[in-house]
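Hey, does this match?
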Amino acid sequence: MSGIYIHIPFCKQACHYCDFHFSTSLKKKDAMVLALAKEIELRKKEFNNDVVETIYFGGGTPSILAVADLKFLIDTVYANFNVIENPEITVEANPDDLTKERIVELSNSKINRLSIGIQSFFEDDLKLMNRAHNSAEARECLEFATRYFDNISIDLIYGIPNMSNEKWRQNIETALSFNIPHISSYALTVEPKTALHSFIQKGIIAPPDDEVASAHFQILVDTLFEHDFIHYELSNFAKENYFSKNNSSYWLGKKYIGIGPSAHSYDGVKRGWNVSNNSLYLKSISENKLPSETEILSKTDRYNEYVMTGLRTIWGVSFDRIEREFGVIYLKYLNQHASKYIEDHLLFIDDNILRTTKKGKFLSDGIASDLFLLNLE
């Protein structure tokens, strides 16, 4: 099974923390939709006999497109690839785009999953992040969306300056009150060249506090566990049968094609990425050229990626797979370097699989980087 990711590189306004590729100018929106469809056609041979299981519209803000445009791109995928009978088709959306009329229109299409960028239910947080929606719109869109969609995910951000533990609990409880089956939650991260980075440098906004973020993370983990959510990836929690099939395929190393400016692709051996420039992308596609670069992943690259993704998920890192796919040297290296984290109760071994403990989950990225192997090949 494989997936197709389609990047919609437009937003109404720039969130202060975001470093994804997008443009706030919509002048080229119609041309971009046609170019995305053309890239889908140009790449139809890449999957050979593979079957498409998921279609994911990310961004940017995919909900900025008309539903007719989304349907057009979905139909183009169906026309050029072999798609399973009931694929997971996700659209990322902002609350201000999800009017009742738009939700009904989306529900009458092949789209069967919404990923809604709530981020916070508090007005001051939304203003600090420069979100396009307000608190009332966050609640109203969920009231309507849950009537027409069963499979909904929302994003929440923790570790925001001046966010108390109680305020964070209220965010989580508000989300739970809508019976949302999937929650993706991330610590506020300060990326270079973002407005947030500039404001912190100038002393306008206080920098995020790691201890506060860690406390918020534990509150999130404990609260969602009490409500029968499965913590299946570091930042993702879902009720049973509501794991994101698209994201799970990334973590499990399945193939995917990324369509659009800045989109990434992976076929199990090499990784590719499109140019992060709308004008250059449109020009290249108009000339029937794929605006991408590729790199062949070495065995060590693939080992490091597996360790990173494995430790972030409930599936862990299989010692059997390490030995089978990478060899005894890699297995010995992993065992040796993991031992100190096992002694510190941050990792544990169960059924020959290396996993993070509850205490180690928040630190999984740092632990994984210390288990990386360099320059063996």
